[in-house]
Amino acid sequence: MSLFHRSPRHLADKLTMRQQVFIFTWEIFKVVVISLAIILPVRYFLIKPFYVKGASMEPNFYDHEYLIIDEISYRFFEPQRGDIVVFRYPQDPRQYFIKRIVGLPNEQVKLIGGTVYITNATNPDGAPLAEPYLPEGLSTSGSVEVTLGADQYYVLGDNRTSSLDSRAFGPLSRSEVVGRVLWRGWPVERIGLIGQAPEYNIP
């Protein structure tokens, strides 16, 4: 009969291996926890991915484009005219829409003869809104006259002939706005930061 004798050196080596496995596992665990601690708040409170569906914002945003939404900026300043925003559809909050802000709180918005008119403190008689981002020759259909409340915005799609927007569901409340479009992540040839709101002829 033979006996297998484990030397103290062998036991020490085995213990060291177990320690190394434990240390490696612990390091991986810490990396995962720290990553989640960073990623989750960013994902749920700072930025949010958004997938464009439909043609309502063409030619500036196309179907199937992948966007990143800035959710934190509007905690420090109010939405501006021309901002591209993502919001909860007022008639079904489970759905998210993307549109452009054209009317600000306490303004009067009129749609007459294919043109948007804005009446506010600096334009008491009303003035047509120049919209350089619209396709040439495209007009805004419909006949609307609405005065916005202190926390309401009027939003329209850039593709005015194929957009479900404030002409249909009315003004948007501030609480329904999720954030503004910050970055286009797909397709590759259109990746890039979304510029600031355009300069308007109306303050």
Automatic annotation (TrEMBL):
Entry annotation: catalytic residues: S56, K99
Entry's Gene Ontology BP terms: signal peptide processing
PANTHER family assigned to the protein according to its UniProt record, in alphabetical order: CHLOROPLAST PROCESSING PEPTIDASE, SIGNAL PEPTIDASE I
Location of this chain's protein in the cell: Membrane
Molecular functions per Gene Ontology: serine-type endopeptidase activity; signal peptidase activity
Record keywords: Hydrolase, Membrane, Protease, Transmembrane, Transmembrane helix
CDD domains per the UniProt record, alphabetical: S26_SPase_I
InterPro entries, per database record: LexA/Signal_pep-like_sf, Pept_S26A_signal_pept_1, Pept_S26A_signal_pept_1_CS, Peptidase_S26
NCBIfam families named in the record: sigpep_I_bact
Chain ranges passing through the membrane: 21-46
Protein name: Signal peptidase I
Organism listed in the record: Candidatus Buchananbacteria bacterium RIFCSPHIGHO2_02_FULL_56_16
Family (UniProt): Belongs to the peptidase S26 family.
Cellular component terms (Gene Ontology): membrane
Catalytic activity of the protein: Cleavage of hydrophobic, N-terminal signal or leader sequences from secreted and periplasmic proteins
Coiled coil feature spans: none
EC number annotated for this UniProt entry: 3.4.21.89
Membrane topology qualifier: Single-pass type II membrane protein
Domain Peptidase S26 residue range list: 26-186
